[in-house]
Design a protein that fits this description.
The complex is a heterodimer of chains A (about 525) and B (about 425). Chain A is α+β, with helices and mostly antiparallel strands and about 525 residues long. Chain A folds into three domains: about 10-130, no CATH class; about 160-290, no CATH class; about 290-455, no CATH class. Chain A has helices spanning about 1-20, 25-35, 65-80, 90-95, 105-115, 160-170, 205-215, 225-230, 250-255, 290-320, 330-340, 345-365, 375-390, 395-410, 415-435, 435-455, 515-520, and strands spanning about 45-50, 55-60, 100-105, 120-125, 130, 180-185, 190-200, 245, 260-265, 270-275, 455, 460. In chain A, the strands form three sheets. Chain A has a five-stranded antiparallel sheet with strand order 1-2-4-5-3, sandwiched between helices. Chain A has a five-stranded antiparallel sheet with strand order 6-7-9-10-8, sandwiched between helices. Chain A has a two-stranded antiparallel ribbon with strand order 11-12. In chain B, β9 (about 240-250) and β10 form a beta hairpin. Chain B has helices at about 1-25, 60-65, 90-95, 115-120, 125-130, 150-155, 165-175, 185-195, 220-225, 260-270, 335-360, 370-375, 380-395; strands at about 35-45, 55-60, 80-85, 105, 110-115, 140-145, 185, 200-205, 240-250, 250-255, 275-280, 290-305, 310-325, 395-405. In chain B, the strands form two sheets. In chain B, strands 1, 2, 3, 4, 5, 6, 7, 8, 9 and 10 form a ten-stranded mixed sheet that branches. Chain B has about 425 residues and is of the alpha/beta class. Residues about 70-75 and about 220-235 of chain B have low confidence and may be disordered. The chains are: A alpha+beta (about 525), B alpha/beta (about 425). The interface of A and B includes residues 332, 337, 338, 341 and 346 of A. Chain B: It comes from Virgibacillus litoralis. Chain B: Pfam families: Spore_GerAC, Spore_GerAC_N. Chain B: Belongs to the GerABKC lipoprotein family. Chain B: This is Spore germination protein KC.
């Protein structure tokens, strides 16, 4: 495995060595070098032709270029004649609209352009090569994000094409302070990665850190933003995500306005924002578009949901195995009646049900849509739960507990976070099964200690709660109305910058002097 | 470099593995599955003729109690009632547990009922057991019954799932009324061990003894009769009621106060909040004015000036009018004043009646006079305390002042009449 990897690496290096050679003015030599580089690439097309006695050659990748653009290039060039008293270069500059044509003088960039779908025009006796922008941009259209749907707010989501994604961000933040820096990652994929931030809002130290961490990446391919995420995140062994990955451009822009740095990867509809705090994973994009009161309540519902997902199964197990004193008498008798003839201890029941739920969930996700994944999931849950209870393997309360847990876990708005919290419930369940509530508490303490010790690009993961930064609490425990959100979340970007004026709150107009006189 | 790193990994995996193995070896050592518990709901403690303790436990049979939701099991009785004897409560419980297939669990005991004889002889020693057993909650109700306690706990619950819940509910409902003198075990223990006050608790007895007629749906009676075939149906009361007070002295039951006396006790303590009192209309009128007592307050002011201690008790009673059956009565201010005076007289009578009984006859300080003295001057109380229950309490003079206040009669002053004009 490692051998083949180094082989690939060498291959890549060799290509870059040959391509860094300067362009010669001989058409044939250039073509032969390119043909050597693109050996056995049957989809590359070399099309030698004559334009008014000048021998030229078009080079392009047939699958990557737009035929319409090719036709337009051809037509634009056909007007050229040597009689007109001007050079080839100036003709092209005049004939083609701004930005569609580049002049290249290095072989390496020529290869890069060909690979990204440009059409190359090699002209004899010229020491530079023209590249026409002809990329066939047939990707997915901008649609509603599938993983983060909201009722209110913008409905557009990122797509795979990085240019579209950058456009979505640029359109929201129309300022020259929005900086976009391109990088290329992956020896074989040559994936374009862009670092996006607002100069003067984002902390320079964090921007540099992102640069540094990205430039450290040495891998053959980057197929999704998660590759990058796992390679640049702090404390890589921690299960908790410390970089937020989102499909929503508005979410990225909100982060940028808070002083975060966005990382956009070509080929992935998920953009990354860093640094990210724990509380962010409990915030939905919709929080900021709904009324303050509604968002605050829903935020608390999510906090409760987080705890329910974590500890409801362990709580039930603890109460039935160790701490019966905590139950009310009628409930105790009820549970005892339900569990009278059950063969397995409640801990085994809980593990069994959790596992069953995971089976059903995974099956529903992976099942081809033709079979109706969602329907099967619901049917499976209902049928298996019901019949397991009727067969006397599972207590009905355990079925309720696991169903509620499964349901509440989906309250968590971020998918990665949802996964982690769901799986954290299992060790807690085991601890409770062995040690009672003592185990639960110890497990939760360990978890909390771990969370508090985490950092995301130097920013404490639990801030602004711990370390306490009270000015940030207006977006943690509540979602303050927008007129009260006059400062940014502390600790992320440049310190002490107001995001809004103080007078945004609507007030009755002050009566002017004339009005008062009239009243008199 | 690489080798040492993988070694580190392996070691952490080994440690994890060892941890899991050790965990599974210990197992869930203090765990008790809920279905392996015999949930004791009520306990009755009696003393039999031979002087041994007789402990009766009422154990819930969950699968018969909630037959609809239970997975299996059909049974006739909803409760398993077992009685065992022993020299002590603990020994009796030990004997009892041999006849119970699951671990007896006392965390949900709602009430402990003492028979009269057990309360007279074994109160202190039994309380020791309940204190040492950590299962018991400190808010278990403590009740005394005249006669045999085991008969009382055998009665079936009527409106709640278990009899324990029924007793708890009725005790809660009648708090601050003459029937709601029920104390929980921690309060009782505190009063019992204090030298400034004597312990009291509520009395429970079959409702029939209180002149309340209990009749049940025909069907239910039949089915119950078939359930309890062979048992002596007569002894088991159908409905229980709380009434009166059991008075303790030096850790033993001293006597019972009936309802008017209990009312007197509550007047003096200023704790009465729900009660109905009927006054005569006066004159030739044969009807009554029924008053609803809405609250009472009392203030004890002890005086230590002379050789003998003296006590002033000021009682304030608030009432409103519940029902008027007098034929011709005008609710004028004078009339209200007259009713106030009548009520004051009644309160004074009842207070003196209970003082005669508890203070003079039994020499028990259930009113908390001692507490008032000890609060006023703790040093002097220390001198008084040794002789408090040996004469000092009896000799103490008590002045009772009552001020009654009938309010909230509103505009609806006069009794309802037939043929009233518009």
């Amino acid at each position: 495995m490692s051998k083949s990897f180094t082989g690939k690496k060498k291959n890549g290096e060799m290509t870059s060595e040959t391509s860094s050679a300067p362009i010669s003015s001989s058409l044939e030599k250039n073509v032969s070098i390119l043909k050597e580089i693109f050996e056995s690439c049957d989809d590359i097309i070399f099309q030698p032709t004559q334009i008014d006695n000048k021998s030229v050659c078009f080079v392009y990748l047939s699958e990557m270029v737009n035929n319409q653009v090719l036709y337009e290039i051809d037509r634009g060039l056909s007007h050229y004649s040597t009689d007109a008293n001007r050079g080839f270069t100036s003709h092209i500059r005049q004939q083609f609209p701004l930005g569609t044509v580049n002049e290249l003088s290095e072989l390496q960039s020529v290869v890069r352009k060909i690979l990204s779908g440009h059409t190359i025009l090699i002209v004899d006796e010229l020491d530079h090569i023209f590249s026409f922008h002809s990329t066939n941009s047939t990707g997915r259209e901008v649609t509603e994000p599938t993983t983060e749907s909201t009722v209110k707010g913008p409905k557009e989501g990122f797509v795979e094409d990085i240019h579209t994604n950058l456009r979505l961000i640029r359109r929201k933040l129309q300022t020259p302070s929005l900086k976009v820096e391109h990088l290329t990652l992956g020896q074989q994929t040559n994936t374009q990665v862009s670092i996006v931030y607002i100069k003067g809002v984002a902390d320079d130290g964090i921007v540099n850190e992102v640069h540094q961490r990205l430039s450290r990446i040495d891998i053959d391919g980057v197929l999704d933003s998660h590759y990058i995420e796992s390679m640049i995140k702090d404390s890589p062994k921690s299960p908790f995500p410390t970089i937020y990955s989102t499909e929503r451009p508005d979410r990225v822009c909100g982060g940028l306005l808070d002083g975060k740095v966005g990382i956009i990867t070509d080929g992935s509809p998920f953009a990354l924002t860093a640094p990210s705090m724990f509380v962010e994973f409990l915030h939905s994009g919709e929080d900021y578009y709904d009324s303050s009161l509604a968002s605050t309540i829903i935020r608390w519902v999510r906090f409760v949901g987080l705890f329910v997902t974590l500890i409801l199964p362990s709580f039930y197990v603890g109460v039935t195995m160790f701490h019966q004193d905590l139950l009310q008498t009628p409930l105790l008798i009820q549970i005892a009646a339900n569990r009278e003839a059950l063969p397995y201890p409640v801990l085994i029941e809980g593990l069994f049900m959790l596992l069953t739920f995971e089976f059903i969930r995974e099956a529903g996700l992976r099942m081809p849509k033709v079979f109706g994944g969602g329907v099967v999931t619901i049917l499976g849950l209902v049928l298996i739960g019901q019949s397991a209870v009727q067969a006397g393997i599972i207590g009905p309360l355990m079925a309720i507990v696991i169903s509620v847990t499964a349901l509440t876990s989906f309250i968590l708005p971020n998918y990665e976070f949802h996964q982690v919290i769901r799986f954290c419930g299992i060790p807690l369940l085991l601890l409770t099964g062995f040690f009672g509530f003592m185990g639960t508490i110890v497990g939760l303490m360990f978890g909390l200690t771990h969370l508090v010790s985490l950092r995301s690009f130097g920013v404490p993961y639990f801030s602004p709660v711990s370390p306490a930064r009270k000015e940030g609490w207006k977006d943690v425990f509540i979602r303050a109305p927008w007129w009260a959100m006059d400062t940014r979340t502390p600790g992320i970007g440049v310190e002490n910058i107001d995001r809004a004026g103080k007078g945004n709150r609507a007030r009755p107009p002050k009566a002017s002097k004339e009005d008062q006189d009239e009243k008199k | 470099m690489r080798k040492s790193k993988s070694f580190k990994w392996m070691r952490s995996i080994y440690i994890m593995g060892a941890f899991i193995v050790v965990l599974s070896l210990t197992g869930c050592w203090s765990a008790d599955e809920i279905n392996n518990l015999a949930v004791v709901n009520l306990m009755a403690i009696d003393e039999n003729e031979a002087g041994e303790v007789e402990v009766t436990t009422v154990i819930v049979k969950p699968h018969t109690l909630f037959a609809e939701t239970a997975i299996s099991g059909e049974g006739k009785g909803q409760f398993l009632i077992e009685t065992a004897t022993g020299k002590t409560v603990f020994e009796a419980m030990g004997n009892l547990s041999t006849a119970i297939s699951e671990t007896p669990y006392f965390g949900h005991v709602d009430a402990i009922v003492f028979g009269e004889r057990a309360a007279r002889e074994r109160m202190l020693s039994s309380l020791d057991y309940f204190k040492r057993q950590s299962d018991f909650r400190p808010n278990v109700l403590l009740l005394v019954t005249k006669g045999s306690a085991s008969d009382v706990v055998k009665s079936p619950p009527q409106l709640n799932a278990t009899l324990g819940l029924e007793i708890t509910n009725s005790a809660l409902l009648s708090k601050f009324a003459p029937v709601g003198m029920v104390e929980d075990i921690s309060q009782f223990r505190e009063a019992l061990s204090s030298n400034t006050i004597d312990a009291t608790t509520g009395v429970i007895s079959p409702a029939k003894q209180q002149g309340i007629d209990v009749q049940e749906d025909e069907k239910k009676t039949k089915s119950q009769r078939s359930d309890n075939k062979g048992e002596n149906q007569q002894d088991i009361p159908k409905v229980l009621s709380l009434n009166g007070t059991a008075v303790f002295k030096n850790g033993h039951l001293r006597g019972f106060l009936d309802e008017p006396d209990t009312r007197g006790l509550l007047w003096i303590k200023g704790e009465l909040q729900h009660e109905i009192v009927s006054l005569k209309c006066g004159g030739k009128n044969k009807g009554t004015v029924s008053l609803n007592i809405t609250g009472s307050k009392s203030q004890m002011s002890p005086q230590l000036s002379g050789r003998k201690p003296k006590m002033n008790v000021n009682i304030q009673v608030d009432a409103d009018i519940g029902q008027v059956t007098c034929s011709d009565i005008k609710m004028t201010t004078r009339q209200i004043d007259r009713l106030n005076q009548q009520l004051e007289y009644l309160v004074k009578q009842e207070a003196f009646s209970v003082l005669r009984k508890a203070k003079n006859q039994w020499q028990t300080d259930i009113f908390g006079f001692g507490k008032a003295f000890s609060r006023k001057s703790p040093d002097k109380w220390d001198q008084l305390a040794p002789n408090w229950r040996n004469g000092l309490l009896k000799e103490m003079e008590i002045d009772v002042n009552v001020s009654a206040n009938i309010t909230r009669f509103g505009v609806f002053k006069n009794p309802s009449k037939a043929n009233e004009s518009r």
